[in-house]
TrEMBL record:
Participates actively in the response to hyperosmotic and heat shock by preventing the aggregation of stress-denatured proteins, in association with DnaK and GrpE. It is the nucleotide exchange factor for DnaK and may function as a thermosensor. Unfolded proteins bind initially to DnaJ; upon interaction with the DnaJ-bound protein, DnaK hydrolyzes its bound ATP, resulting in the formation of a stable complex. GrpE releases ADP from DnaK; ATP binding to DnaK triggers the release of the substrate protein, thus completing the reaction cycle. Belongs to the GrpE family. HAMAP family: GrpE. GO terms for cellular component: cytoplasm. The gene is grpE. This is Protein GrpE. It comes from Candidatus Staskawiczbacteria bacterium RIFCSPLOWO2_12_FULL_37_15. PROSITE patterns: GRPE (PS01071).
Amino acid sequence: MDEENKNINENPSAGSGQFVQKDLDELKTKCEEYLNGWKRERADFLNYKKDEMERISQLVKYANEELILKIIPILDNFYLAEKHIPENNEFKDGFTQIKKQLYDFLSKEGIEAIKTIGEKFDPNTMEAVEEIVVSPTYNNPGTVAKEVQRGYTMHGKVIRPAKVRVTK
């Protein structure tokens, strides 16, 4: 038997071509398996990379949310104080300008006030604090009649719901 193996190793044509072809086919199959596995792993990695980039962009997009939530009460106080300034007061112009600058800053950060008065009550963006009796002005039940506190969205996401009074 050693002589037979020696003959095959020394002279491949002396051995059976069928054994060589079988080994070659097995190696091709393994090569294809490894290549397909590599392709799947590459695709998985690219998908992971894309998902991570999306997650990071969302993180950056909403990174200022906590800061904005601290600034919004200041804007609320500007709106409240503005109601009590006499019309002919020079102070009102400067006060209004500061409020406008603050509002413009928030707008650039993607902050928008939620439109409420006269709108149908939406529990996704509003919080009902009281139901009021239907009046001639608002004779449609479920309509927002008064805004108690403004609500805001940041890039379409509600960061503070509006507190409203709704008609019965």
